[in-house]
């Protein structure tokens, strides 16, 4: 099988600068507190600058034409997968998607967060623990729920059941679509329940439609 | 140029309180059975949590985010690290680095050293040049990132080569399996580096 590694910066180098004995060089300080905080960067750039560059990259993704979007998306995914401050990076993507005026903004964000290399499970688990999902804009919830539904790991476990209990019908509808993406027996069973018992006729209708689609294969 | 150091670095999450000499010996990661190892742990609030020791003729350095195993020869430490990972299968891994350090006397270095543009013109402003460095990074087809750093002083030239492979969990392979696979590239990377040096300098690595 052909393996493809991803290049995220030479953080595994054991090279040391040539020591001139002046002791004022900031390099190769082994104290973790003094290390560059983000392995994406191998130089002494501050973590804030790294995050600033990441924000710029995400911004350019949402602004870029379709032709160049794929390449930038791969960079963003690499950055999220390897970089520290996972929550901050995911929040940055959500923020850009919410504020963007491009029609493809939600799909662009979902296309990043549904990638296996992006640890959405950890992000969602932390968000649940902190109770921060409740405070997110509707579009951000939609992105998270749909991205979780497309993943093969257990990210959905941390957001879909929560979304199904939401007061907002649109959030429950997103959960219905995520369940359809999951397509497991448990998901179908939940869809059946939603199609019969949800308070909103619109959500019940959506659930019925996706169930029909699943049955028709 | 002659090899002075080679090693493999695992980047991930490690516990220096676990990966220590007696534990490695007890679990047959290393053959050396002596209880007396030369270890170096730095204490103090600002000290790094680092454990450094020698076992089976290899140099070990363990910190919270990396394990380095190497020697002054072209001897792959992959089998030791694979045994270690087999004992700690849930270790989160991010990348594998294979590193080589080559050294040459400045007088033996057959080519010009890297300089800044118009360095002669700025000579009076920067004074005597003490060190000169050139860094080149490239990316191979399989995603391996190669970094070559040439450091020169008036006395010597040192070339550090880093073959960096990011690993991750995918549907086809776990990060652990990917890391083990990456470590088997040690000999191939060494061969690749020899070719590079040979083409750069017109001389074989000694």
Defining key terms:
heterodimer, A: 217 residues, mainly alpha, Leucine-rich Repeat Variant, 59% helix, 0% strand, B: 206 residues, alpha+beta, nine-stranded antiparallel beta sheet, elongated
What can you tell me about this protein's structure?
The complex is a heterodimer of chains A (217) and B (206). In chain A, helix 2 (66-82) runs parallel beside helix 4, helix 4 crosses helix 6 and helix 8 runs parallel beside helix 10 (201-216). Mean pLDDT of chain A is 80; it is low at 17-45. Chain A is built from 10 helices and no strands. Among the domains of chain A are: 45-118, no CATH class; 144-217, Leucine-rich Repeat Variant (Alpha Horseshoe), CATH 1.25.10. Chain A is globular and about 60 Å long. Chain A is 59% helix and 0% strand. Chain A has helices at residues 47-63, 66-82, 86-99, 105-113, 120-130, 138-150, 160-164, 169-182, 185-197, 201-216. With 217 residues, chain A is mainly α. By secondary structure, chain B is α+β, with helices and mostly antiparallel strands. Chain B has one domain. Chain B contains 5 helices and 9 strands; from the N terminus they run βαββββαβαβββαα. Chain B has helices spanning 21-26, 78-87, 119-126, 175-183, 186-201; strands at residues 2-12, 39-41, 51-55, 58-62, 66-71, 93-105, 131-139, 145-153, 156-166. In chain B, strands 2-3-4-5-1-6-9-8-7 form a 9-stranded antiparallel sheet. Chain B starts with a strand and ends in a 5-residue tail after the last helix. Chain A binds chain B through residues 1-15, 17-18, 20, 30-33, 39, 78, 81-82, 116-117, 152, and chain B through 5, 7, 9-11, 46-50, 63-66, 68, 70, 94-97, 99, 101, 130-131, 137, 139, 142-145, 147, 149, 151, 153, 158, 160, 162, 164-173, 178, 181-182.
């Amino acid at each position: 099988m052909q393996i493809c590694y991803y290049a995220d910066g030479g953080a595994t180098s054991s090279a040391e600068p040539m020591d001139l004995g002046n002791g004022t060089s900031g390099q190769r300080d082994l104290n973790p507190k003094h290390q560059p905080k983000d392995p994406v960067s191998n130089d002494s750039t501050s973590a804030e600058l790294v995050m600033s560059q990441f924000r710029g990259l995400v911004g350019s993704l949402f602004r870029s034409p379709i032709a160049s979007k794929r390449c930038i998306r791969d960079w963003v995914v690499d950055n999220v997968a390897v970089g520290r401050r996972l929550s901050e990076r995911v929040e940055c993507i959500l923020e850009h998607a919410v504020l963007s005026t491009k029609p493809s903004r939600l799909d662009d964000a979902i296309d990043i967060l549904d990638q296996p290399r992006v640890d959405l499970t950890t992000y969602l688990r932390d968000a649940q623990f902190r109770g921060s999902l409740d405070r997110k804009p509707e579009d951000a919830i939609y992105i998270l729920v749909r991205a979780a539904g497309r993943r093969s790991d257990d990210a959905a476990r941390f957001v879909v059941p929560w979304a199904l209990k939401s007061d907002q019908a649109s959030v429950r509808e997103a959960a219905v679509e995520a369940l359809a993406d999951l397509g497991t027996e448990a998901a179908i069973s939940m869809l059946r329940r939603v199609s019969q018992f949800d308070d909103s006729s619109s959500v019940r209708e959506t659930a019925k439609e996706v169930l029909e689609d699943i049955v028709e294969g | 140029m002659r090899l002075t150091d080679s090693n493999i670095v695992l980047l991930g999450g490690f516990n220096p309180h676990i990966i220590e000499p007696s534990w490695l010996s007890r679990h047959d990661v290393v053959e050396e059975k002596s209880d007396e190892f030369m270890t170096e742990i730095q204490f103090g609030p600002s000290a790094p949590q680092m454990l450094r020791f020698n076992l089976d003729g290899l140099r070990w350095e363990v910190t919270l985010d990396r394990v380095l195993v190497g020697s002054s020869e072209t001897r792959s430490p992959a089998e030791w690290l694979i045994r270690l990972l087999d004992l700690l299968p849930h270790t989160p891994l991010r990348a594998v680095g294979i590193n080589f350090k080559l050294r040459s006397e400045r007088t033996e270095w057959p080519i010009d050293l890297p300089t800044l543009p118009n360095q002669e013109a700025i000579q009076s402003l920067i004074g005597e040049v003490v060190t000169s460095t050139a860094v080149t990074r490239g990316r191979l087809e399989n995603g391996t990132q190669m970094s070559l750093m040439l450091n020169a002083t008036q006395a010597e030239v040192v070339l550090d080569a880093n073959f960096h492979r990011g690993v991750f969990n995918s549907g086809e392979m776990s990060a652990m399996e990917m890391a083990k696979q990456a470590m088997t590239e040690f000999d191939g990377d060494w061969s690749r580096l020899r070719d590079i040096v040979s083409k750069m300098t017109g001389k074989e690595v000694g």
